[in-house]
Amino acid sequence: MRYDPQGGFSFYAPGPDSLDLTTAKEATFEYYVFFEEGFEFNKDGKLLGLYRGNSEGTAKSCSGGRRSDECFSARLTFRTDGAGEIYTYLPLSFDANSNFCSNEGSECNPTYGTSVGHGAFSFKAGEGTTVSERVRLNDVGQENGELELLLAETASLALWASFLGTVKRSVRPGGLNDVVGSTSDWPSPQDQSSYFSDFSVVITQGL
What we know:
207 residues; Jelly Rolls; five-stranded antiparallel beta sheet; 2 helices; globular; Polysaccharide lyase 14 domain-containing protein; Polysacc_lyase_14
C-alpha cells in the first residue's frame, strides 16, 4: 500500500550532552519564532514544546491521539487568525488535568489532545515572538505540577496547574511543526515560511 504523507514534519531533541535533563524537577524551554509577512494562519499549526515519558519511546508517543499515564507533551499551537494556545497530551484520569475541559478557552477532544487557553495570546504575521515554556513536575501522589507560558514581547502570562504524572524520565524539548486535519480546508492556503532560532533549555530546579 502506498503511503500518502499529510504534510509537516516532527523532531524530538534530548538536549545537549552537557545538560542532564534526567535530573530536572522543573525545566524552561525558550525559542524565537517568526512568521513571514503575509503568513496566513489557517486552522492549525503545531509548534514546539516540552515532552516527557518513562522511556524514550514512550515519551514520543503522547501525540497523534495517543494518551498514556506514562508520558505527556505540551506544545504551542496557532489556530485561525494566529490565535494561540497550549496543546497538551496529559493523562485525563487525573482531576487536575480533566478540569481543563471546563476552563474558558479550553477544549478536551475525546480522540486527540486538549486545547488549553485558546486565544489567551496570538501570533502575528511579520512579527517575531520569544516564547518561554516552563514545566514543573508534580510530586509523587500529588496533583501539583505546573505549566507556565511567557511571551516576552507582550508580557502576557498564562499559568495553569496540572498533574504531569509520576513518570521517571526527564523533561525534554521537542515538537512538531505541521498542519493536521484530513480535509482540504485544513492545509496551508499558500506556500509560506516560519522561522525558529535562539533555542535554549534550562533546568530551573533539580529533583
